[in-house]
Design brief:
The structure is a single chain. The protein is of the alpha/beta class. The chain is built from 21 helices and 32 strands. An 8-stranded mixed β-sheet has the order 14-11-8-6-7-16-17-25, with helices on both faces. A 7-stranded mixed β-sheet has the order 5-4-19-18-20-21-22, sandwiched between helices. A 4-stranded antiparallel β-sheet has the order 23-24-26-27, with no helix packed on it. Bound molecules: adenosine-5'-monophosphate-propyl ester. Adenosine-5'-monophosphate-propyl ester binds at residues 303, 349-350, 425-428, 450-455, 476, 537-539, 551, 554, 560, 565. One of its GO terms (biological process) is acetyl-CoA biosynthetic process from acetate. This is acetate--CoA ligase. Residues 103-514 form the AMP-dependent synthetase/ligase domain.
Amino acid sequence: MAEQNDHVAGSEELIFNPPASLQNEAHVNSMQQYQKMYRHSIDDPETFWREIAAEFYWKSPPTGKFFDYNFDVTKGPIFIKWMEGAKTNICYNMLDRHISNGLGDKIAFYWEGNDPTDHGKITYSQLQQKVCRFGNVLKNLGIKRGDRVAIYMPMILDLSVAMLACARIGAIHSIVFAGYSAESLADRILDAHCCAIVTADGVWRGSKLLNLKKIVDDALKICDERGHHVDKSIVVRHLSVDEEIINNGDGDDEREAARPSHKLKINWTAGRDIWWHDMMQSVSDVCEPEWMDAEDSLFMLYTSGSTGKPKGVLHTVGGYMLYTATTFKYVFDYQPDDVYWCTADVGWITGHSYVTYGPLGNGSTGVIFEGTPFYPDAGRLWEVIDKYKVTKFYTAPTAIRALMKFGDDIVTKYSRESLKILGTVGEPINPEAWLWYYNVVGNGKCAIVDTFWQTETGGHVLTPLPGATPTKPGSATFPFFGVVPALLTEEGREIEGPGEGYLVFKKPWPSLMRTVYGNQERFETTYFKKFPGYYCTGDGARRDSDGYIWITGRIDDMVNVSGHLLSTAEVESALITHKNVAEAASVSHPHKIKGECIYCFVTLKQGCQYTDELVVELKNIVRTKIGPFAQPDFLQNAPALPKTRSGKIMRRILRKIAVGDRNLGDTSTLADESVIDLLFNNRPNNA
Ligand code: PRX
């Protein structure tokens, strides 16, 4: 089990009732109503979800069972199906359906650039036209239903256009967060056999200029070397450039980026590289949606796996559409005049479900933000909230903790009067951060929704409902409609009442992942083998005497760095590519802002010196192989590693050494106890 998170003394007893102002308008405004709806969703899921499905457009109804599944590996292959045989198109439901209902002129998204003077907006009709155009561009390039398209883009409106255009023509999008390295991008393109990629020339993130095109070029080169040729790379010209020097065939182009003092140098491979704006000019803005089966694939999104190789989590059209829209409606208590802002990057699942599909499924107005919370200063989020009069706001604990450091004044100098609901996601939120969010950001008048979910779950699974659930700081509270959680002992026995164990789910809800792309066996092994009959989250959780659920963190070898999951194996495989490294072990380590960070133990080959330069080289290797966000915070020279007699590294002991805790518990299985002192004495000064 992972160590328990810090709790504010007595935080289990602290209870915050839903704000009365919110309760008056909320879709669900009492626990009785929540419980009634919850029971209905569990006792009769078919009727519950059929009623919700009726609000969407279906070309034709399901042909077989409304839903069907097997969670028990001992009984046969794992499968999950919702509304199989029904025909629909998610893009049509996100755009055309609302336009037909008179929402064409409603703002779909405000766009706020990295630079506070850069902004834009797009209505539902305008978005639909752009999506149709880009759908036609993709079709003209020969991309068809079922093809995989990689997207590596900054947070710009064209990113939403690209993903919705894929969905419209039935292509499967595979979005890779534009902070991953060329190697990570290549791994993902190769795994999915993507036939095209959509990117942008570059982007400013805070005061840093990133050359996305170069990263994509490098990734495509790696793909070529490994035998997979991507012959279409569509490039959005995002940074302002000199009109004279575009598209001159092979060779280097120098373009002015948004800041005149910087030049972005990009290469152009004629025949493969295509400017987005060139293609968009000559196509029609009418694009008939491809009518998809509810169980056809919508997208894959890669998430770290404990073996080191990322898993392509596969989501399908129908169930994902219903569940993201329904969770958005109830968890953010969607009202038509809302301005909703989720700060997550679309490259992560939060951006898929709660920047794009959930909000658009409801016809809401959202904000897409390109920048960072700290640029030009740490008041940026609150400034943007005032600028667009944001009513519902969704961010990560890591951002809250980082902003707390700057004090209250930089928050309170902005009005934040419009705010009603504040959401958090991605990692356990410590009660101190929860209380600061509630008292300072929300001025003590907003509901906080701590939403627990995963890339795999597609949408929120444990969460308060803002008009109904009395909240406790640090608890994700209760299950959403259709979700049946349980806590299991190591032996797989269900824990009734208060207790702590493995967090699992007993039944599927519509947006649970369907498989690991191209690897059903890995899907079954990762999520269903340990406890047959249950979907296993990989997290530990505790239920208190009031039935509230508290997530205690990962119980596998995953590290949650600033809300981003990384596997320790992934970091270790990067480290051992250094010529001087014989062996490496990395573990999760508590971090005040990031929640967790990576602490690495490195064993060098005979005769190699552990120097400051080597530490820098090792950190850079991880940056290059995975991405800058994965860089370890601590590295330590480990002349040897603690191992069992069968040679297994004892990570439990390494985690203790990393925090300097000599309380090691049972060490009887250690092959060589002398390693322990050696490692304690070698801890880096900054640890
Ligand atoms: O450990 C849990 C943590 O993030 C993991 C899922 O990560 P990912 O697939 O990247 O998706 C993140 C965004 C949904 C979970 O297994 N996690 C996520 N939300 C919470 C959380 N831990 C505690 N509380 C949360 N609210």
